[in-house]
Amino acid sequence: xxxxxxxxxxxxxxxxxxxxxxxxxxxxxxxxxxxxxxxxxxxxxxxxxxxxxxxxxxxxxxxxxxxxxxxxxxxxxxxxxxxxxxxxxxxxxxxxxxxxxxxxxxxxxxxxxxxxxxxxxxxxxxx
Length: 127
Fold this sequence. Notes:
CATH topology: Beta-lactamase Inhibitory Protein, Chain:B, domain 1
Helix content: 25-40%
CATH architecture: 2-Layer Sandwich
Number of helices: 4
Shape: globular
Distance between the termini: 22 Å
Largest sheet: 5 strands, antiparallel
Order of helices and strands: HHHEEEEHE
Strand order of the largest sheet: 1-2-3-4-5
CATH class: Alpha Beta
Radius of gyration: 14 Å
Number of strands: 5
Number of domains: 1
């Protein structure tokens, strides 16, 4: 399921960046899919602890300060504003509201091992 969601996001991002996204272009400050390279192993290992410091209501800048740069990001113009930190089995998602603040934090833990799940000391979904 997680892989399907990631593929769907990439398809939507490709359509938006190629101009097939509807009636207008994205705004100047609108982040497109920003996945440029894989994060370092050190960064990925820090995500479970950092994730529990993230809170609903945070801004994009605050999320970056806590988690580091997202591996993918979509703005409100995409119709699905969110920030994601993904690598291997890890997938941390911050879904944004219309004011660009976190409305929901979600960890997709389906493919995590028991020890990887145990390293995340907060609920898998927070609103």
